[in-house]
Amino acid sequence: MTVPVWVTPISMVAYTVLLMLLTEFMRRHYRTSMWVWVVSLVTIPLWIANIPGDDWFRWAKNLSVILPLIFAGLGRIAAVEQKDTPFWRTMRKRWVRWALYGIVFCNIAEATLRDVQMGNMMNALAGFILCVTMPLGDKFWKYDTSSHGEILSYTVPMWNFLYTTWNACFVYAEGHEFFASTCCSWRRPSCTPSSCAGLSSTSPGASTRWARTSCCAAASRRSSPPS
Fold first, then answer.
1. Quick check: 190 pLDDT over 60?
2. CB neighbours of residue 70 within 10 Å
3. Cβ-contact 150, 181 below 8 angstroms
4. Which of 2, 69, 96, 164 is the most exposed place for a label (fewest CB within 10 A)?
């Protein structure tokens, strides 16, 4: 069956709008966002049925996105609601920011290893550069406690550009049938591996905040890195 050419741009626009609406909903409703990812764990039997046991990348990617999103959701609750119990105080400590840094680092590293496995060595080099130049967790990552607990990562425009182009090359090589939907995710006010957890990246001096993953926080404002 041949699909008319006009169907593709229209469906991409519709999908982009849907992603933007979902992004904004998840940004505003941080508790709902976390529980969505908790409930998504019930799909594990579907993974077992449909993902080959030797496909390490699919298993690693699913687990390294969903479980960290649940963790990030707990951090958003801790940041916004400021509950004074041992658990919630722990979730506001500096190690949480390092954990967020490690989560994104691992997501990039997984795809970089996959690039090596596929023989895409130049793209793997780009992934390695992204890992070693990513802003460190203690100084350049924080939760925004003033509104909805968005996770802010202070980056520079060149890092964002390299991440976007690296991710485009990776997706096209690893599964080109997903490339169009990935392009739709770039069109919303966000970036990439991340999620509905509210993970955003702000370039110092820039006015655009992007959200990494599938449906994160999205807002525009001027901001500077924490001291």
1. no
2. 18
3. no
4. 2
pLDDT at 218 over 80: no
Residue 151 is inside which H or E element, if any? strand 151-154
Q: Is 2 helix (H, G, I), strand (E, B) or coil?
A: coil
Which residues does residue 153 pair with via DSSP β-bridges, in sequence order? 141, 201
Q: What does pTM read for this prediction?
A: 0.73
Considering Cα of 182, then 178, then 67, then 133, what sign does the dihedral take? negative
Chain segment 60-100, per-residue pLDDT in tens = 888 888 888 899 899 999 988 888 899 999 998 889 889 98
Q: At what angle do helices 157-175 and 94-118 cross, to 10 degrees?
A: 40
Give 79-84 contacts, CB < 8 A, sequence gap 24+: 79/143, 79/144, 79/145, 79/149, 80/30, 80/145, 80/147, 80/148, 80/149, 82/145
Q: How far apart are CA 12 and CA 210, in angstroms?
A: 20
